[in-house]
Design a protein that fits this description.
Elements lengths: L9 H20 L6 H30 L3 H11 L1 H14 L6 H11 L18 H7 L8
Helix pairs in contact: 1-2, 2-3, 2-4, 2-6
Length: about 140
């Protein structure tokens, strides 16, 4: 029997999500007002940040099994902002506090400054319906 190799490791998925978030941030910054598409994009940011945090936790778990506690702890601290930011954006969405969104997005820009975007490769179908999906779920809990 041959080995099963998972090509979608947490690092690859994290990098894909970082690219998608960077594109969404660029598109959101060009929107003059919060329309339905902007709400969908904001909700998609919540989902992507949650998935990044899940991947981080998977990596940390694997390192802890091997005894790399310091490396795991450092990595977890490096990415702890994802869960907090996802919760903050979700709070803005659920409470219709859209005036607070630009400040949160400005904070996010710094985390994705290293992602180079020459052409937009993500289609709007990637985030279409994310707002409705998020609003139909029970509210998430804050990570702290």
């Amino acid at each position: 029997m041959s080995r099963v190799i998972n090509v979608n490791n947490p690092t690859k998925v994290r990098n894909q999500h970082r690219r998608t978030i960077a594109e969404i941030l660029r598109r959101l910054s060009q929107k003059p007002e919060i329309d339905l598409e902007a709400k969908d994009m904001a909700a998609m940011l919540v989902y992507l940040l949650r998935e990044i945090q899940t991947g981080v936790e998977q990596s940390v778990e694997a390192w802890e099994k091997r005894g790399y506690w310091m490396k795991a702890e450092r990595f977890l601290r490096q990415w702890e902002w994802t869960a907090v930011t996802a919760a903050n954006i979700e709070d803005v969405i659920r409470n219709n506090a859209w005036d607070l969104l630009p400040g949160l997005l400005a904070e996010l820009f710094g985390q994705f400054a290293d992602v180079q975007i020459k052409t937009m490769t993500r289609k709007s179908s990637a985030w279409r319906g994310a707002y409705q999906k998020l609003m139909s779920e029970p509210p998430g809990e804050l990570p702290f």
